[in-house]
Design a protein that fits this description.
Layout: E1 36-37, E2 39-47, H1 52-65, E3 70-75, E4 84-92, E5 105-108, H2 114-119, E6 126-130, E7 143-147, H3 149-156, H4 163-179, H5 183-193, H6 198-218, E8 225-226, E9 237-240, H7 241-251, E10 256-259, H8 266-279, E11 281-282, E12 285-286, E13 289-292, H9 296-308, E14 313-317, H10 319-324, H11 326-335, E15 339-347, E16 353-357, H12 362-366, E17 376-378, H13 383-400, E18 403-409, H14 410-414, E19 416-419, H15 437-443, H16 489-506, E20 514-516, E21 523-528, H17 531-545, E22 550-555, E23 557-558, H18 562-569, E24 573-578, H19 584-592, E25 600-604, H20 613-626
Parallel strand pairs: 1-8, 2-5, 5-6, 6-7, 10-13, 10-14, 14-15, 15-18, 17-18, 21-22, 21-24, 24-25
Antiparallel strand pairs: 2-4, 3-4, 9-19, 11-12, 15-16, 17-23, 20-22
Helix pairs in contact: 1-4, 1-5, 3-4, 3-6, 4-6, 5-6, 7-8, 7-13, 9-11, 17-20
Length: about 625
């Protein structure tokens, strides 16, 4: 540990007792370097709770407003404040938005991590740091820009309590100058961020201007990185997947939300509550119900109760909450009650890493409950699909009279993504096989659990339907077609076979996979969810670096469709990319296609960080070497 309380590896320059490193590259240089335009990552290291999120969003949005594709990823600890946090902005002219291993520009604002953050930079990178940090002594192969953040904050405001916050906006101005970000776009982004706080907007504009003016007067640009205007973001928005899911739920006609807060899914509940309050009030009265339950078990039970009563009902949670919902999930499946459950996946087991991303709930959710159970599971792979699949989930839940799960993850749910504006829904809500009093009068007979149409889906009535035939018992115990209690072996077998038939019927009605084929490709890739962005970038790397053309199937739902077998049969080797340790999707596909097992390979990523293209590429190349 050095004088600033920083730690590092033994034998690395900067540690007391070691040979001091050569002087850093600071000052003017006549050496010309080729410009690196619109292709780098900015890594901002701060302290959780320091107010840096607004500054980081403004920096990202300013670049986005210049027409340059961006994405933003927030890596934060599972405490309220005080521990290290990092925000990474990827800037890429080609539109790649997945995480990268290396970052080229570091804003080192956290004393506790400055040494490690600087040491991880690649040669040729850039580091912005406080003037008194001393990190400029650690590396001679990177460019250092030292900034008196505290002094500039003091000149910006007399309010001592907010000077630390103001330091964040000063680095926006300094970085903006070095990268040549348009001043007008920074001001526009600040006004958008503080749209409801005009005084705060003016103060932050002043802080960014002070940072930029200081940089203009005191820093000579020595690095190669810059931004230049493009036209690749026109018409697009920046949104996180949780907000997109919430908007989709509102347009799906949800009337009941029951939930218990848990990271990283709380944004759905909070966002949906906001949207419903703003858009679902008639004559001064809400036309919806939001209940914060005492726990996830209660939330699931309430959602099923509301679904049974005819509401479009939902809950949202993450892994630990899913564990508590297992019993009610089985009830919903067996008694055939519609509900929608969003699971924004995080690292487990147990509490695990609450603020890290994962795709490790797949097999658990798919068969959530004791006994023979198979659920419909939707797998959005973008913010646009968080919106569209949310709407489909409610239609499927009512059409198939069953709980439907939507699996997102922390990376997709909480991070910033470019997206096309969401289209206004054109189709009416699909309530499924619901009989009215008029239907019952016409039919003269109704048995709740009888398959009339041969698709496994029975008809149902809603409570309050004014007809003598409408009533029935909803049973979580053995029941026959007429909803009567039974323990007869034959009745149970018929019931379970019908539920399985209903599941097979769903194969043609769930969101179908997106398949992109490449002529002559002997290698295929299968993935789902947020892995999509890294897979597409990896395909480009494989084609150019390894001369390995690949085809790609992006799974969007369970149960599997016929496309899966066709895809695997048409390739010699198929790599299944997923973010969990045990290859859960690989095992599900293996169970579905045991005769094609020799073609299946796994590419796994499970360190809690979003998957990156380079890891996929390297893994596939290594396995291809051994075929």
């Amino acid at each position: 540990m050095n004088a600033q309380g920083q730690t590092g590896d033994t034998g690395t320059p900067g540690i007391p007792g070691e040979t001091p490193p050569p002087e850093p590259v600071i000052g003017k240089s006549d050496k010309k370097r080729p410009a690196i335009v619109n292709d780098f990552s900015i890594h901002v290291a701060t302290v959780n709770g320091s107010g840096s999120q607004s500054a980081n969003n403004i920096l990202m949005r300013s670049i986005f407003q210049m027409g340059i594709p961006v994405s933003g990823k927030n890596l934060f600890p599972s405490n309220i404040q005080g521990l290290p946090t990092w925000f990474t902005i990827r800037v890429n002219k080609d539109g790649w938005v997945a995480r990268t291993h290396e970052v080229q520009i570091l804003v080192a604002m956290n004393p506790a991590t400055q040494v490690d953050d600087v040491r991880r930079l690649p040669a040729g990178a850039v580091c912005f740091s406080p003037s008194d940090s001393g990190v400029e002594k650690l590396r001679t192969d990177i460019t250092h820009y030292q900034v008196p953040f505290k002094e500039l904050a003091a000149k910006t405001t007399d309010a001592a309590k907010i000077r630390k916050l103001i330091e964040n906006m000063i680095y926006v101005g300094v970085v903006g100058h070095i990268l040549d970000i348009d001043v007008a776009e920074i001001e526009k982004a600040i006004r958008k961020q503080f749209a409801d706080k005009p005084k705060a907007a003016e103060l932050n504009i002043k802080a960014a201007a002070n940072g930029r003016e200081w940089a203009q007067a005191n820093l000579t640009k020595l690095d190669s990185f810059k931004v230049e205007r493009l036209d690749k973001t026109a018409g697009k928005v920046i949104i996180d997947g949780n907000s997109a899911s919430a908007i989709g739920c509102m347009f799906a006609g949800v009337t009941v939300l029951t939930w218990y807060p848990i990271t990283p899914s709380s944004g759905i509940g909070e966002g949906l509550t906001h949207y419903l309050t703003e858009h679902r009030v008639k004559d001064g009265k809400p036309t919806f119900a939001v209940v914060q339950a005492e726990d996830e078990l209660a939330a699931m039970g309430m959602a099923l109760g509301a679904g049974w009563a005819g509401a479009r009902a939902m809950t949202c949670t993450s892994g630990p909450g899913i564990s508590l919902m297992a019993e009610f999930a089985g009830l919903g499946y067996f008694a055939e009650i519609p509900a929608v459950i969003f699971d924004v996946m995080r690292v487990g087991p147990s509490t695990g890493l609450p603020t890290r991303t994962s795709q490790a709930d797949l097999s658990f959710v798919y068969q959530l409950s004791h006994g023979d159970t198979k659920h419909i599971v939707l797998l959005p792979g973008s913010a646009e699909e968080c919106y569209s699949l949310a709407m489909q989930a409610f239609d499927l839940a009512e059409r198939f009279q069953t709980p439907v799960f939507v699996l997102s993850d922390l990376d997709l749910g909480m991070n910033n993504w470019m997206a096309d504006p969401f289209p206004y829904p054109e189709k009416p809500l699909d309530r499924g096989k619901v009989l009215s009093a008029e239907d019952l009068a016409r039919l003269g007979k109704f048995e709740r659990y009888r398959d009339v149409d041969g698709d496994g889906i029975p008809y149902r009535t809603l409570p309050g339907t004014n007809h003598p035939l409408a009533g029935y018992f909803t049973r979580g115990t053995g029941h026959n077609e007429a909803a009567g209690y039974t323990e007869k072996p034959g009745d149970y077998v018929r019931l379970m076979d019908r539920l399985n038939l209903k599941y097979r019927t769903a194969r043609a009605q769930v969101p179908q996979p997106i398949v992109s084929t490449t002529d002559g490709a002997k290698v295929g890739i299968i993935a789902f969810g947020s892995s999509h962005f890294a897979v597409e970038e990896s395909q480009a790397q494989l084609a150019t670096e390894a001369t390995l053309p690949t085809s790609y199937l992006r799974l969007r739902a369970l149960p599997f469709t016929d496309d899966l077998r066709k895809f695997v049969e048409s390739h010699d080797r198929v790599y299944i990319v997923e973010q969990n340790r045990d290859g859960q999707l690989h095992d599900l596909i293996l169970a579905e296609l045991p005769d094609l097992s020799s073609r299946l390979r796994s590419v796994l990523h499970y360190d809690g960080l979003p998957i990156d293209a380079r890891s996929i590429t390297n893994d596939i190349v290594a396995q291809e070497g051994g075929k």
